[in-house]
Amino acid sequence: MNATYETFALRYATLSSWPRSKAFHCFEVYGDPDTLIDLDYYFWLVRNDEHTVLVDCGYDKERGRARSRHQETSPIELLARMGVKPEDVDHVVLTHMHYDHIGNIALFPNATFSIARAELEYWTGPYADRPTISWPVESEEIRLVQQLATEGRLHLVEDSHELFPGLRLTRLPGHTPGQLITEVTTRAGQIVLASDALHYYEEADLDRPFGTCHDLVDVYRSYDILREMAARPHTVVVPGHDPAVMRRFTVVDDDCVDLAQPTYSQG
Ligand SMILES: [Zn+2]
């Protein structure tokens, strides 16, 4: 049995030059000038001889357009660059239900899916349709996830679960109630795909929460846990939306980097 994986970050879109005062929660309390920052959109490919796993699958092109989000490259095209066809994907981890993470789930006919039970219950619960809560999700996509459950294709994660040997999913709430991180064993060590438990490196470096958050104390607690993980030997924590990911790891194709090959020396 092969318990190590190749792990790649694939960038399918960029939102250019938005103000830090929008990116970060209560930015004004820091007293810093309001500079501009880019936001990259990624999903992640984790594979070995036995499994082809996606961690998230990007936003739907048309629904993204309706939100003024342009998609440079479709996730399917990026997968093709890595030699992956949609029907090759056997599992998709849904790290949370925001539109930019679950927009293409219908494109993977042979996949089963994982999501945190807390996430599904929240977005199908009694407060999910309040506009100040519901804006980052699409009702059609929530319906599709519920449909996966009725088809027996949805696995619900409680707190922590080994999906396959060397591939663990753990709930790290704060951004959403059921935000999942994915720990992957590679030949080079452990890679922690934080998804939106950490959008930018500077959230953990400066202890500054991202603008969209469900529970602020849980966000801080999750940063503590991610910093502890990053301090372990041979462990790399990868944020979910930081443009620096494209520079900190080795480029293997346009918008595709190998997360087992950092371009910086690891301490
Ligand atoms: Zn996101």
Quickly list its features:
binds zinc ion, globular, 10 helices, single chain, five-stranded mixed beta sheet, 31% strand, eight-stranded mixed beta sheet, 267 residues
Written account of the structure:
By secondary structure, this protein is α/β, with parallel strands linked by helices. The longest helix is centred in the last third of the chain and has 15 residues. Helix content is 26%, strand content 31%. It has a single domain, classed as Metallo-beta-lactamase, Chain A (4-Layer Sandwich). The protein is built from ten helices and 13 strands. The chain binds zinc ion. Zinc ion binds next to α4.
Q: Supply Rg.
A: 17 Å
Instruction: Quote the beta fraction.
Output: 25-35%
Count the domains: 1
Briefly, what CATH class? Alpha Beta
- The second-level CATH architecture is 4-Layer Sandwich
Cα distance spanning the termini: 31 Å
Give the integer mean of the pLDDT values.
96
Question: What order do the strands of the largest sheet run in, or round the barrel if closed?
Answer: 6-5-4-3-2-1-13-12
Question: Element order, helices and strands?
Answer: EHEEHHEHEHHHEEEEEHHEHEE
CATH superfamily: Ribonuclease Z/Hydroxyacylglutathione hydrolase-like
Please tally the helical runs, counting DSSP H or I stretches of 4 or more residues.
10
Percent of residues in helices comes to 25-40%
Low-confidence stretches: none
Q: Provide the structure class.
A: alpha/beta
